[in-house]
Specification:
By secondary structure, the protein is mostly helical. Helices cover 72% and strands 0% of the residues. The protein has 19 helices and no strands. Keywords: Acetylation, Annexin, Calcium, Calcium/phospholipid-binding, Cytoplasmic vesicle, Membrane, Phosphoprotein, Repeat. It comes from Macaca fascicularis (Crab-eating macaque).
Length: 318
Amino acid sequence: MAVATKGGTVKAASGFNAVEDAQTLRKAMKGLGTDEDAIISVLAYRNTAQRQEIRTAYKSTIGRDLIDDLKSELSGNFEQVIVGMMTPTVLYDVQELRRGAGTDEGCLIEILASRTPEEIRRISQTYQQQYGRSLEDDIRSDTSFMFQRVLVSLSAGGRDEGNYLDDALVRQDAQDLYEAGEKKWGTDEVKFLTVLCSRNRNHLLHVFDEYKRISQKDIEQSIKSETSGSFEDALLAIVKCMRNKSAYFAEKLYKSMKGLGTDDDTLIRVMVSRAEIDMLDIRAHFKRLYGKSLYSFIKGDTSGDYRKVLLVLCGGDD
């Protein structure tokens, strides 16, 4: 199965001393001007757990909040990366979902399609604690029709997490999808939603193979021809994440940078949220899919301290 094998670029620093790091950061921000390089040299080379320890040490030894200080000293995309790196993993997803609600449908799709059911349940709990309202309610108020239904379904975190395979159900699902789309005029969109949002990964990979056997088409091709808009984007994201999550993120990064302009929100979110998980895998897929290194793309598309910190999160140039 195509799961992350190489891992992340950001690892726990050895010989770590939270108090020392806190002092270094304070010094970097005190007085006139800010020493951005010093901030990068500490925070980009620590993992999320260590950054939380630094924040605690900063508060207890200096009596100030590190994130507040960083926000007042930094600005723009660089600030967004650094503050993102300082935010605990689940809370980061929660804040991104809140920011994306109503404005950035790609953000909602990416997070809800790529996180595990367990992660999604934690995200839902934290969202409720943070904002006093449910993630589902916010999705409902900001989206509509089938797109709303697929996001609500994903946000329930109810996908089967087992590996169990039932050959008869695999054939049935593949046949149902075929009959719901390719075989008839008009599409039974609910059938796509039910199968893609609730079945386990192992089962779905077999369904995709069986679907191709019956219809002579990849499920992605059928989704593209049978559905449209954000609903189509969401279904495609689910399929891609099931097949190969790291390749899905490689494509997200490529699309955030190719052509004119940069989708900085997506670039930052993927780099920050995947650095410790599967950045090495993402890099390998990026090179395989696009013939150039992720490093070279980031280097050509960004500048200044923003570029510096992203290149550290990226790791090497291969």
